[in-house]
Amino acid sequence: MPKSLQERLWALAVWALVAFFVVNLLAMIAAVLVNSFGTRWFNTWLPAGFTTQWYAFAWNEFGLPSILWVTVEVVGAVVVLSGLIGVPTAYAMARRSFPGRQAVMFLFLLPLLVPPITYGIPLATVLYQARLAGTIWGVILANLVPSVPFVILIMIPFVEQIDPRVEAAARVFGAGTGRLFVQVLVPLLTPGILAALLLVLVRTIAMFELTFLTAGSDSQTLVVALYYAVFAAGVRPGQSIDAMAVVYMVTTLIWLLIALRFVNPTQIVTRAKQ
Amino acid sequence: MNGEKPRLRWRLREAGLDGVTLLVLPGVLFVLALFIYPFLYGLGLSFHPAKGDWLANYRRFFSDPFLWRTIPTTLLIAAPVTVLNVVLSVPVALRVRRMRRQRLLTTILVIPITLGTVMVAEGLLTYLGPRGWLNRTLILFGIASGPVHLVHNYWGVMLSLLISGFPFTFLLTLSYVTGIDPSLEQAGAMLGARARQRFRHILLPLLAPGLAITLALAFVQAFTVFPSAILVGDPAGATRVISIAAYQAAYEQFDYSLASAIAMLMAGVQVVIIVALLGARSLLFRGPASSGKG
Hints:
The complex is a heterodimer of chains A (274) and B (294).
Chain A: H1 5-37, H2 53-61, H3 64-95, H4 101-113, H5 116-129, H6 136-161, H7 164-172, H8 177-206, H9 209-214, H10 222-231, H11 238-260
Helix pairs in contact in A: 1-11, 2-11, 3-6, 3-8, 4-6, 6-8, 7-8, 8-11, 10-11
Chain B: H1 4-14, H2 24-46, H3 56-63, H4 65-68, H5 70-96, H6 102-128, H7 133-140, H8 154-177, H9 182-190, H10 195-223, H11 227-231, H12 242-251, H13 256-283
């Protein structure tokens, strides 16, 4: 296809738009990074000097060790539990067509379509009544609400890829459903389970709303602690808040990089397209 | 084997109900207990106000300008940014589709989604502040004479929704665009259609149903903007969005009944918009986006 000048200009404009967006995004991240290492930064392009003192400050002042430990506990529990509930459910959804299957599918789609803040407030109210909100278990339960359906919807296409004759063969040799899972399905589904759980992990680290609405003072995760730090900016030096932001950023991006070895970036917003 | 039992079991299995089907129960019970039940509980609670009759919360919401104005305020933020994000996504996705090394770009764009709104807000505060790099650049090139106020107002929230929203709509649009068979467009080109005509008469009709879904999902996300409206916005004025009103009712006034009513109204507005968009979608072309030969 010969390209006219108009088409070339249009392509150039589109690329300029993309470049403008990416440059500003990277500059925004770099600004946080530079500020967290800066001593004093007034009317100059870069800070007057560089130091690591803000990390020590954030570590002690914001209580980062306990916040990081809570984050590990919450994320770990959410990943394990959503896998244990989600994978068997996805298996049944993929292999059986039963009356009401469409309705059940819709039921699993709902928590992913409704934004967390909308259902978070009634959910937090119920968890407060059950005396679970404010504890780490309340935070875990709230975070499981979008994670379980997410695992189910990602795993269904992975189960559908497995040849049913493999399962039939295992059944013929006398394997029950439990043994079928442990010895046949889980090994075959490992890539899918890994992808689904890594995505749950990345999403749970960054899940602000549900954790914010259900956490007590000793069950905050990193993202909620970062919110409180930014909210109360002015109480502490701005560089220490950015130091904490860098700790959060590094935690999230490491897992993102690991996750991207197994999934396509588009899968983070859409469900697995098979 | 006596008559009835095996036959019933057999009939159930024929309908797709057996031991394996029961495995859906943990998932279904979980969603029922922690999503459907709280929602219904909140709906019921919203009709049991602290004082007044059963509709008192809703009457209060619509008579108190401090409360009802949150709906137009939220729409004024969410609607323009959603449309902008989707309109920008389409040409970029059409261009990126033909790119060989898409992965680097999609990886960069997935970063703001992964970081989340709190982190983006902190980044914007540092980057767009009066002494930040953007203002320095604007002044250096003589575009602005003094620092431009881009945070702690309406524009701060818009920019934060642009940074986390554009990658979302773009990646979603890209997945719809890549589902369209390129040979359909090539056929149009062979018959002499120019790029603009091919877009207008071939790509857009095929893309429209997907765009309706993208628009609905992106709008719902933007409508429930919460941390950035507080951190980079003006939470007492121009960006007092509906989620702030719900949060304050629950966590500052401890009026869970009013908070539930506001949450239900929030869900109501979302449902109205989604039904309208998906209703419009059913009027659009729905057919194969791939060519006839499999």
